[in-house]
Amino acid sequence: MSGIIPESELIINNRGAIYHLDVKPEELGQTVITVGDPDRVKEVSKYFDNIEVQRQHREFITHTGTLGSKRISVVSTGIGPDNIDIVFNELDALVNIDFTSRTIKEKLTTLHIIRIGTCGSLQEDIPVDGMVAGTYGLGIDNLLNYYLQENNVDELELLQQFIRHTQIDQQFSMPYINAAGSSLLKHFVDGFHHGITVTCPGFYGPQGRVLRLGLKYPNFVDLLGTFSYGTHRIANFEMETSAMYGLGKLLGHQVLSINAVVANRVARTFSKDGKAAVENTIQKVLERISEI
After folding, report:
1. Contacts of 203 (CB under 8 A, 6+ apart)
2. Which of 89, 101, 180, 246 has its CA 20 to 30 A from that of 195?
3. What is the pTM of this model?
Protein backbone atom coordinates (compact mmCIF):
# COMPACT_ATOMS: atom_id res chain seq x y z
CA MET A 1 0.00 0.00 0.00
CA SER A 2 1.31 3.47 -0.86
CA GLY A 3 0.09 7.02 -1.39
CA ILE A 4 -1.84 9.45 0.75
CA ILE A 5 -4.24 7.87 3.26
CA PRO A 6 -7.66 9.64 3.05
CA GLU A 7 -9.19 11.49 6.01
CA SER A 8 -12.00 8.93 6.16
CA GLU A 9 -9.50 6.07 6.72
CA LEU A 10 -7.00 7.73 9.05
CA ILE A 11 -8.99 10.00 11.36
CA ILE A 12 -6.92 12.64 13.15
CA ASN A 13 -8.68 14.95 15.61
CA ASN A 14 -8.24 18.70 15.96
CA ARG A 15 -5.37 18.39 18.41
CA GLY A 16 -3.43 16.14 16.01
CA ALA A 17 -4.20 12.88 17.82
CA ILE A 18 -5.45 9.55 16.47
CA TYR A 19 -9.24 9.32 16.67
CA HIS A 20 -10.18 6.65 19.23
CA LEU A 21 -7.13 6.71 21.50
CA ASP A 22 -6.77 10.52 21.39
CA VAL A 23 -2.99 10.09 21.52
CA LYS A 24 -0.37 11.97 19.49
CA PRO A 25 2.65 10.13 18.02
CA GLU A 26 5.04 11.80 20.48
CA GLU A 27 2.85 10.72 23.42
CA LEU A 28 3.39 6.97 22.91
CA GLY A 29 6.23 4.86 24.31
CA GLN A 30 7.86 2.08 22.28
CA THR A 31 6.91 -0.43 24.99
CA VAL A 32 3.12 -0.67 25.39
CA ILE A 33 1.16 -2.52 28.06
CA THR A 34 -2.48 -3.18 27.22
CA VAL A 35 -5.18 -3.88 29.79
CA GLY A 36 -8.86 -4.51 29.18
CA ASP A 37 -10.23 -2.63 32.18
CA PRO A 38 -9.82 1.18 32.04
CA ASP A 39 -9.48 1.24 35.85
CA ARG A 40 -6.45 -1.05 35.55
CA VAL A 41 -4.39 1.62 33.76
CA LYS A 42 -3.66 3.50 36.97
CA GLU A 43 -2.89 0.23 38.74
CA VAL A 44 -0.03 -0.24 36.27
CA SER A 45 1.16 3.37 35.95
CA LYS A 46 1.38 3.80 39.74
CA TYR A 47 4.64 1.86 39.49
CA PHE A 48 6.12 4.27 36.91
CA ASP A 49 8.86 6.61 38.11
CA ASN A 50 6.89 9.43 36.50
CA ILE A 51 3.81 9.93 34.33
CA GLU A 52 4.10 12.49 31.55
CA VAL A 53 0.91 11.84 29.54
CA GLN A 54 -2.64 11.02 30.62
CA ARG A 55 -5.33 10.81 27.95
CA GLN A 56 -8.87 9.43 27.94
CA HIS A 57 -11.47 9.01 25.18
CA ARG A 58 -14.39 6.62 25.71
CA GLU A 59 -13.01 3.39 27.25
CA PHE A 60 -9.51 4.11 25.94
CA ILE A 61 -7.24 5.48 28.66
CA THR A 62 -3.52 6.00 28.04
CA HIS A 63 -0.78 6.81 30.55
CA THR A 64 2.79 7.26 29.31
CA GLY A 65 5.77 7.56 31.61
CA THR A 66 9.10 6.03 32.50
CA LEU A 67 10.16 2.97 34.46
CA GLY A 68 13.91 3.13 34.94
CA SER A 69 15.36 3.88 31.54
CA LYS A 70 12.27 2.69 29.62
CA ARG A 71 9.49 4.90 28.29
CA ILE A 72 6.27 2.91 28.62
CA SER A 73 2.64 3.48 27.72
CA VAL A 74 -0.24 1.59 29.30
CA VAL A 75 -3.45 1.58 27.26
CA SER A 76 -6.90 0.24 28.10
CA THR A 77 -8.56 -1.60 25.22
CA GLY A 78 -11.93 -2.50 26.63
CA ILE A 79 -13.22 -6.03 26.08
CA GLY A 80 -13.13 -8.06 22.89
CA PRO A 81 -11.31 -8.50 19.57
CA ASP A 82 -13.25 -5.67 17.91
CA ASN A 83 -11.64 -3.21 20.34
CA ILE A 84 -8.23 -4.79 19.70
CA ASP A 85 -8.74 -4.07 16.00
CA ILE A 86 -9.13 -0.38 16.85
CA VAL A 87 -6.29 -0.17 19.36
CA PHE A 88 -3.66 -2.09 17.37
CA ASN A 89 -4.30 -0.28 14.10
CA GLU A 90 -4.11 3.05 15.90
CA LEU A 91 -0.98 2.13 17.90
CA ASP A 92 0.71 1.16 14.65
CA ALA A 93 -0.44 4.34 12.93
CA LEU A 94 1.10 6.43 15.71
CA VAL A 95 4.59 5.08 15.01
CA ASN A 96 4.49 4.09 11.34
CA ILE A 97 2.39 6.74 9.58
CA ASP A 98 3.45 10.35 9.09
CA PHE A 99 0.44 12.35 10.29
CA THR A 100 1.45 15.44 8.33
CA SER A 101 1.79 13.80 4.91
CA ARG A 102 -0.63 10.93 5.67
CA THR A 103 1.83 8.46 4.19
CA ILE A 104 3.48 5.32 5.54
CA LYS A 105 6.99 5.98 6.79
CA GLU A 106 9.91 4.45 4.90
CA LYS A 107 11.50 3.21 8.13
CA LEU A 108 9.06 1.25 10.26
CA THR A 109 9.10 1.02 14.07
CA THR A 110 8.54 -2.20 15.99
CA LEU A 111 6.56 -1.84 19.20
CA HIS A 112 6.81 -4.24 22.14
CA ILE A 113 3.23 -4.84 23.27
CA ILE A 114 2.35 -6.89 26.34
CA ARG A 115 -1.18 -7.63 27.51
CA ILE A 116 -1.92 -7.96 31.21
CA GLY A 117 -5.34 -9.57 31.43
CA THR A 118 -7.44 -12.25 33.06
CA CYS A 119 -8.54 -15.63 31.77
CA GLY A 120 -10.11 -18.97 32.47
CA SER A 121 -7.87 -22.03 32.72
CA LEU A 122 -8.75 -25.08 30.62
CA GLN A 123 -6.31 -27.40 32.36
CA GLU A 124 -6.72 -28.73 35.89
CA ASP A 125 -3.00 -28.30 36.61
CA ILE A 126 -3.10 -24.56 35.80
CA PRO A 127 -4.73 -23.26 38.99
CA VAL A 128 -6.52 -20.04 39.80
CA ASP A 129 -4.16 -17.17 40.67
CA GLY A 130 -1.50 -18.63 38.34
CA MET A 131 -0.20 -16.79 35.27
CA VAL A 132 -0.28 -17.96 31.65
CA ALA A 133 2.03 -16.71 28.91
CA GLY A 134 0.27 -17.58 25.66
CA THR A 135 2.59 -19.35 23.22
CA TYR A 136 -0.01 -19.02 20.45
CA GLY A 137 -3.20 -17.03 20.06
CA LEU A 138 -5.93 -19.16 18.48
CA GLY A 139 -8.96 -17.16 17.39
CA ILE A 140 -12.53 -18.35 17.05
CA ASP A 141 -13.66 -14.71 16.87
CA ASN A 142 -13.32 -14.25 13.06
CA LEU A 143 -11.48 -10.88 13.18
CA LEU A 144 -8.31 -11.88 11.30
CA ASN A 145 -10.39 -13.42 8.52
CA TYR A 146 -10.97 -9.85 7.31
CA TYR A 147 -7.22 -9.43 6.68
CA LEU A 148 -4.72 -11.10 4.36
CA GLN A 149 -3.09 -13.58 6.74
CA GLU A 150 0.38 -15.08 6.79
CA ASN A 151 1.17 -18.34 8.58
CA ASN A 152 4.26 -20.51 8.79
CA VAL A 153 4.20 -24.30 8.45
CA ASP A 154 4.02 -24.95 12.22
CA GLU A 155 1.08 -22.59 12.66
CA LEU A 156 -0.82 -24.12 9.75
CA GLU A 157 -0.27 -27.65 11.06
CA LEU A 158 -1.48 -26.69 14.55
CA LEU A 159 -4.53 -25.04 13.05
CA GLN A 160 -5.44 -28.05 10.89
CA GLN A 161 -5.10 -30.40 13.86
CA PHE A 162 -7.34 -28.12 15.93
CA ILE A 163 -9.98 -28.02 13.20
CA ARG A 164 -9.93 -31.82 12.91
CA HIS A 165 -10.30 -32.16 16.69
CA THR A 166 -13.16 -29.68 17.13
CA GLN A 167 -14.82 -29.54 13.70
CA ILE A 168 -15.30 -25.86 14.54
CA ASP A 169 -15.33 -24.76 10.90
CA GLN A 170 -18.59 -26.65 10.46
CA GLN A 171 -20.15 -25.06 13.54
CA PHE A 172 -19.07 -21.41 13.64
CA SER A 173 -16.35 -19.86 11.47
CA MET A 174 -12.83 -20.57 10.28
CA PRO A 175 -10.38 -20.27 13.21
CA TYR A 176 -6.93 -18.69 12.88
CA ILE A 177 -3.66 -18.90 14.78
CA ASN A 178 -0.47 -16.90 15.30
CA ALA A 179 2.57 -17.33 17.54
CA ALA A 180 3.60 -15.01 20.36
CA GLY A 181 6.49 -12.62 19.84
CA SER A 182 9.53 -14.81 20.46
CA SER A 183 11.78 -11.99 21.67
CA LEU A 184 9.28 -11.28 24.48
CA LEU A 185 8.18 -14.82 25.34
CA LYS A 186 11.71 -15.92 26.26
CA HIS A 187 11.66 -13.47 29.19
CA PHE A 188 8.46 -14.95 30.66
CA VAL A 189 9.37 -18.55 31.50
CA ASP A 190 10.01 -19.05 35.23
CA GLY A 191 6.80 -18.63 37.21
CA PHE A 192 4.55 -18.71 34.13
CA HIS A 193 2.48 -21.52 32.66
CA HIS A 194 2.74 -21.84 28.87
CA GLY A 195 0.23 -23.00 26.28
CA ILE A 196 -2.13 -21.94 23.52
CA THR A 197 -4.54 -19.14 24.42
CA VAL A 198 -7.94 -19.35 22.70
CA THR A 199 -9.84 -16.13 22.08
CA CYS A 200 -13.64 -16.21 22.11
CA PRO A 201 -16.05 -13.56 20.77
CA GLY A 202 -18.09 -13.52 23.98
CA PHE A 203 -18.06 -14.43 27.69
CA TYR A 204 -21.15 -16.57 28.10
CA GLY A 205 -22.24 -18.81 25.20
CA PRO A 206 -18.89 -18.67 23.34
CA GLN A 207 -17.14 -19.79 26.54
CA GLY A 208 -19.67 -22.51 27.29
CA ARG A 209 -21.50 -20.78 30.14
CA VAL A 210 -25.17 -21.57 30.61
CA LEU A 211 -27.50 -19.17 32.42
CA ARG A 212 -30.90 -19.10 30.67
CA LEU A 213 -29.85 -19.94 27.10
CA GLY A 214 -28.98 -23.33 25.69
CA LEU A 215 -25.78 -23.94 23.73
CA LYS A 216 -25.60 -25.03 20.10
CA TYR A 217 -22.24 -26.75 20.71
CA PRO A 218 -22.36 -27.85 24.40
CA ASN A 219 -19.19 -29.96 24.35
CA PHE A 220 -16.97 -27.28 22.79
CA VAL A 221 -15.16 -26.29 26.00
CA ASP A 222 -14.37 -29.95 26.70
CA LEU A 223 -12.90 -30.26 23.21
CA LEU A 224 -10.69 -27.22 23.82
CA GLY A 225 -9.31 -28.70 27.03
CA THR A 226 -8.59 -32.09 25.48
CA PHE A 227 -6.82 -30.78 22.37
CA SER A 228 -3.13 -31.59 22.10
CA TYR A 229 -0.62 -31.87 19.31
CA GLY A 230 2.97 -32.77 20.05
CA THR A 231 3.99 -30.63 23.03
CA HIS A 232 1.16 -28.15 22.42
CA ARG A 233 -2.07 -27.92 24.38
CA ILE A 234 -4.66 -25.23 25.07
CA ALA A 235 -3.94 -23.61 28.41
CA ASN A 236 -6.64 -20.96 28.69
CA PHE A 237 -9.21 -18.80 26.97
CA GLU A 238 -10.22 -15.15 27.06
CA MET A 239 -11.32 -12.45 24.59
CA GLU A 240 -8.33 -10.54 23.15
CA THR A 241 -5.12 -12.51 22.57
CA SER A 242 -5.63 -13.97 19.09
CA ALA A 243 -6.46 -10.56 17.64
CA MET A 244 -3.36 -9.10 19.29
CA TYR A 245 -1.05 -11.81 17.96
CA GLY A 246 -2.56 -11.76 14.49
CA LEU A 247 -2.54 -7.99 14.00
CA GLY A 248 0.81 -7.66 15.76
CA LYS A 249 2.43 -10.14 13.43
CA LEU A 250 0.97 -8.56 10.29
CA LEU A 251 2.05 -5.09 11.41
CA GLY A 252 5.55 -6.20 12.45
CA HIS A 253 5.30 -5.79 16.23
CA GLN A 254 6.42 -8.08 19.05
CA VAL A 255 3.37 -9.09 21.10
CA LEU A 256 2.85 -11.21 24.20
CA SER A 257 -0.28 -11.92 26.25
CA ILE A 258 0.07 -12.57 29.98
CA ASN A 259 -3.10 -13.54 31.80
CA ALA A 260 -3.87 -14.06 35.47
CA VAL A 261 -6.08 -17.11 35.94
CA VAL A 262 -9.25 -16.11 37.78
CA ALA A 263 -11.30 -19.22 36.94
CA ASN A 264 -10.47 -22.88 36.37
CA ARG A 265 -13.21 -24.25 34.14
CA VAL A 266 -12.15 -27.88 34.67
CA ALA A 267 -12.03 -27.75 38.48
CA ARG A 268 -14.93 -25.23 38.47
CA THR A 269 -13.12 -22.94 40.88
CA PHE A 270 -12.87 -19.13 40.95
CA SER A 271 -10.19 -16.97 42.53
CA LYS A 272 -10.91 -15.84 46.09
CA ASP A 273 -9.06 -12.58 45.36
CA GLY A 274 -8.87 -11.82 41.67
CA LYS A 275 -7.65 -8.28 42.35
CA ALA A 276 -4.61 -9.63 44.20
CA ALA A 277 -3.91 -12.08 41.36
CA VAL A 278 -3.95 -9.23 38.83
CA GLU A 279 -1.76 -7.05 41.07
CA ASN A 280 0.78 -9.85 41.33
CA THR A 281 0.75 -10.26 37.56
CA ILE A 282 1.30 -6.52 37.04
CA GLN A 283 4.30 -6.57 39.36
CA LYS A 284 5.82 -9.63 37.70
CA VAL A 285 5.37 -8.23 34.19
CA LEU A 286 6.90 -4.87 35.10
CA GLU A 287 9.86 -6.65 36.72
CA ARG A 288 10.50 -8.58 33.50
CA ILE A 289 10.05 -5.50 31.31
CA SER A 290 12.62 -3.61 33.35
CA GLU A 291 15.10 -6.46 32.71
CA ILE A 292 14.58 -6.61 28.92
Report:
1. 79, 209, 239
2. 89
3. 0.97
